[in-house]
């Protein structure tokens, strides 16, 4: 069956001891095998990018816990994977991707109805497509839910997948504001995919109606979403076993008691996936270009405020799920910390002048002004002033225990995924392994 439109955060039950109830099959949306296998190929196929050189997997690869192992990615103009990705001398990136590539774990769970670091896409039953975004409402029609609809952003971003101005037909269409309709960017991508016989057959098997009306961009995104929902479901960790009656022991158990007790982690990292799906300002250092419009001269990333316009949301970012957190370094919306221990030591503490800049993992990019915000005392002060709370200090032993608990959130099959990386894709383009 097709993914259902996600319309509300599902309240997770809580056991008497304050822990969430175990995750079960009904907590996830149902997906069909044919669309999952189609989505796998599309996810790893560079054909969805303007220059046919970047796949979804480039920045969300299982080798790196469905992220990309760097603080801020190099999209268009980059070559390679992970920390080995480098600039293409013949096609230099104009800037880094402004925020850290988030992990994709458990996004098929029904409670994930708000996505991106700033929550700019969310389920909303009052909207025509059941989805709220900053884009025109007619652009949300046809997507199976927020997980599908989020794909509209990277394929339209010139720095992520579309390509720089005038480099290809997709980037040209985006530059001219032609997104939907005949000749729009989505139409051009769909035509590429439909022009390959193997894909036409796979779409007809997954979505029979496409045999008559043709393949649309939303069919592509729905299949990709189905794959992500299936591939990166992760609820077979030691913590899950604990919830099902096989208790943690030793340092991991002590860390659990800290997490759900004195350390206060579960105040925000609540529920079965350790997230309240809310937005909090925690004083994370800002590096890189910031999530600002190209015509703006500053590099400040004001997070949730960019979506809501509310001053109280300045520098607030979505609470990430902590499932498989040990696999998804670097940490923070800007990827400011390569080490989880260092991130925890800083978390919630407003002291950006003391930030250790060696914690970043940044591929070389000539001309990049990565420290503009942190080099400005006024900018640092603004981020520090917005920080909501100080996290209780932990001793070295307590930090070890907390890290042991966080490691217990790693799923047994998390590294490999369920289907894995395909050997080839129907376009014949290279698959990054």
Structure description:
Helix content is 29%, strand content 3%. It is mainly α and 433 residues long. The strands form 3 sheets. It has a 3-stranded antiparallel β-sheet with strand order 3-4-5. A two-stranded antiparallel sheet has the order 1-2. Helix 1 runs antiparallel to helix 8, helix 6 runs antiparallel to helix 7 and helix 12 crosses helix 16. It is globular and about 60 Å long. The chain starts with 32 loop residues before the first helix and ends in a 26-residue tail after the last helix. The N terminus is likely disordered.
Strand order, main sheet: write it out. Answer: 3-4-5
Structural shape: globular
Unreliable stretches, pLDDT < 50, 5 or more residues?
1-12
The CATH architecture of the largest domain can be given as: Orthogonal Bundle
Which series of helices and strands comes N to C? HHEEEEEHHHHHHHHHHEHEHHH
SS elements, strand count? 7
- What is the C-level CATH assignment of the largest domain? Mainly Alpha
- Count of runs of 4 or more consecutive helical residues: 16
> Would you identify the CATH H-level superfamily of the largest domain?
Cytochrome c-like domain
**How much strand content do the residues show?**
under 5%
The pLDDT mean sits at 92
Helix content: 25-40%
In short:
The protein is mainly α and about 425 residues long.
Based on the model shown, name its key terms.
three-stranded antiparallel β-sheet; 2 domains; Cytochrome Bc1 Complex, Chain D, domain 2; two-stranded antiparallel ribbon
